[in-house]
Design the sequence.
């Protein structure tokens, strides 16, 4: 008599997963017998970020890969910087300009590249 639960093998558990054609090799053992467990891709204002996790069917280790463009910001991060700049402008006595149909660029917001990469590192942790 049992609880009705079955212990699955790795092959049964991952049978419906597909292989990542761009990065098929395992980072631990180098095997190309991998299945993709997790994939997420985000595009925002022409910039991209992705993350992928694959399971090696030979050594049973997971491999994690991620990438983001250096100046990639999520809409929340972008709007936070924009609002902080508006508040700082108002506090400094500068006129606050209403939003137009075109969003300002990061250079217009005064965001340096190293500040963006620092925010991306914080967001990934």
Sequence:
């Amino acid at each position: 008599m049992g609880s009705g639960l079955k212990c699955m093998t790795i092959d049964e558990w991952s049978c419906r997963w597909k292989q990542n054609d761009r990065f098929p090799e395992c980072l631990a053992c180098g095997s190309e017998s991998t299945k993709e467990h997790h994939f997420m891709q985000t595009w925002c204002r022409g910039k991209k970020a992705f993350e992928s996790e694959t399971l090696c069917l030979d050594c049973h280790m997971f491999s994690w890969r991620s990438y983001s463009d250096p100046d990639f910001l999520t809409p929340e991060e972008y709007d936070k910087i924009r609002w902080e700049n508006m508040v700082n402008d108002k506090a400094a006595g500068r006129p606050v300009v209403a939003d137009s149909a075109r969003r300002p660029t990061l250079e217009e917001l005064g965001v340096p590249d190293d500040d963006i990469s620092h925010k991306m590192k914080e967001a990934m942790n």
Summary: Residues 75-124 form one domain.
